[in-house]
Amino acid sequence: MPSHVIGFLVSFVISFFLNSYFTFRVKPTLAKFLKFPLSQVVNFTVSSLFIFIFTDYFGISSTITPIFAVFVALPATFIVTGKILKKESVSA
């Protein structure tokens, strides 16, 4: 379990910086870093809902449904991540 948690946290931090610098080409800030977990909440929610609906209501195999869920969750996560990282800070 400790390895799992450490691996998750390291990959999360790396994902934040790679998305900031390369995907959206914005300066990483602490405020953006603190909001970044929302993108993972969207990813988890959309993919879980997709898997639930397609396995329970449509009877599609739970073995292949997660593969299709990626194609739905990825664009949603990309949009939310972009909104989080591209949002400009308001200076007072």
UniProtKB/TrEMBL annotation:
<feature type="transmembrane region" description="Helical">
    <location>
        <begin position="36"/>
        <end position="58"/>
    </location>
</feature>
<feature type="transmembrane region" description="Helical">
    <location>
        <begin position="64"/>
        <end position="85"/>
    </location>
</feature>
<dbReference type="Pfam" id="PF04138">
    <property type="entry name" value="GtrA_DPMS_TM"/>
</dbReference>
<dbReference type="GO" id="GO:0000271">
    <property type="term" value="P:polysaccharide biosynthetic process"/>
</dbReference>
<comment type="similarity">
    <text>Belongs to the GtrA family.</text>
</comment>
<protein>
    <submittedName>
        <fullName>Sugar translocase in surface polysaccharides biosynthesis</fullName>
    </submittedName>
</protein>
<feature type="domain" description="GtrA/DPMS transmembrane">
    <location>
        <begin position="2"/>
        <end position="81"/>
    </location>
</feature>
<dbReference type="InterPro" id="IPR007267">
    <property type="entry name" value="GtrA_DPMS_TM"/>
</dbReference>
<keyword id="KW-1133">Transmembrane helix</keyword>
<dbReference type="GO" id="GO:0005886">
    <property type="term" value="C:plasma membrane"/>
</dbReference>
<dbReference type="InterPro" id="IPR051401">
    <property type="entry name" value="GtrA_CellWall_Glycosyl"/>
</dbReference>
<keyword id="KW-0472">Membrane</keyword>
<keyword id="KW-0812">Transmembrane</keyword>
<feature type="transmembrane region" description="Helical">
    <location>
        <begin position="6"/>
        <end position="24"/>
    </location>
</feature>
